[in-house]
Amino acid sequence: MKNVKYALSDIKVNTSGHLAWATFKYSITADFRERHIEGGGMGTAVLQLGPNGCQIMHWHTSSARRPAAAGAEKKN
Amino acid sequence: MIASAETIDVGRKLFGNHCASCHGADGKSKTDISAAMKKRPTDLTAKEMRGITDGEIYWEGANGITKSGMPAFKTKASIQDRWKVTLYLKHLMGEHAHAEHSGESADSHAGHSQANAAASGNSDADVRAVLAQYTSAVERGDLDAIGKLRSNDESVTVIGNGHANYGWADYRDNHLG
């Protein structure tokens, strides 16, 4: 991938003991082979505050649902 | 990054070029510009600033403070330069940056300061700094930096769009690779 732009926003952080968790919105754009990719959604990160410093233990992102294409039939 | 005379001096020059017009060369924010501002810039040497973590300084420099009008420098200065200004400000405050003797790279610096921040219970800004370092490393495709910011053992999980990677090696080889 080339020209990757990856940004987080609306970050909310909570900490308790040696754990921290954050929720965020993300956006990503990149060029992959011949395609330009644009995406985004929401995510959660869990971080451990340990002897090796702060490290990300868990990362979960979920992309936003794409709008239905014009003329697409609704499926039940 | 080491808080050496050299890195602090570079930080001092960067601060002088980009920050001193409002904060003053001595950090006390007693300048003509600051006097004319609706919300006066923070006196960086005030006792209220004592105990501020490296990550908090770094994060505020990177992201700015919208309400006060302080600009964000994440697109105006490199990660290394922003850390050098952080080291200089710690020096200005009469404190030693947490990474002073670590010899670690800028990308892993936030993680080390976080360990100290955890003990003080002041870790919000440092978590944000780690996330900022992480997204920057992803943009650069810097697997070494990403590995330092993630727990690089089998306990790490990454889930995206219904697919999961279990462990750093799985994520590195089958998602990033």
Q: State the helical fraction of chain B.
A: 40-55%
Overall geometry of chain A: elongated
Number of helices of chain B: 9
Oligomeric composition of the shown chains: heterodimer
Give structural attributes.
heterodimer; A: 76 residues; mainly beta; Nuclear Transport Factor 2, Chain: A; 74% strand; B: 177 residues; mainly alpha; Cytochrome Bc1 Complex, Chain D, domain 2; 54% helix
What does this structure look like?
The complex is a heterodimer of chains A (about 80) and B (about 180). Helices cover about 0% and strands about 75% of the residues of chain A. With about 80 residues, chain A is mainly beta. Chain A has a single domain, classed as Nuclear Transport Factor 2, Chain: A, CATH 3.10.450. Chain A has a four-stranded antiparallel β-sheet, with no helix packed on it. Chain B has about 180 residues and is mainly alpha-helical. Helices cover about 55% and strands about 5% of the residues of chain B. Chain B contains nine helices and two strands. Chain B has helices at about 5-20, 20-25, 30-35, 55-65, 80-90, 105-120, 125-140, 145-150, 170-175; strands spanning about 155-160, 165. The interface of A and B includes residues 7, 11, 15 and 57 of A. Strand 4 (about 55-65) of chain A pairs parallel with strand 1 of chain B, so a sheet runs across the interface.
Outline of this structure?
The complex is a heterodimer of chains A (76) and B (177). With 76 residues, chain A is an all-beta fold.
Spell out the blueprint of helices and strands.
The complex is a heterodimer of chains A (76) and B (177).
Chain A: E1 2-16, E2 19-32, E3 35-50, E4 53-63
Antiparallel strand pairs in A: 1-2, 2-3, 3-4
Chain B: H1 5-18, H2 20-23, H3 32-36, H4 54-63, H5 79-92, H6 106-120, H7 124-140, H8 143-149, E1 157-160, E2 163-166, H9 168-176
Antiparallel strand pairs in B: 1-2
Helix pairs in contact in B: 1-5, 4-5, 4-7, 6-7, 7-8
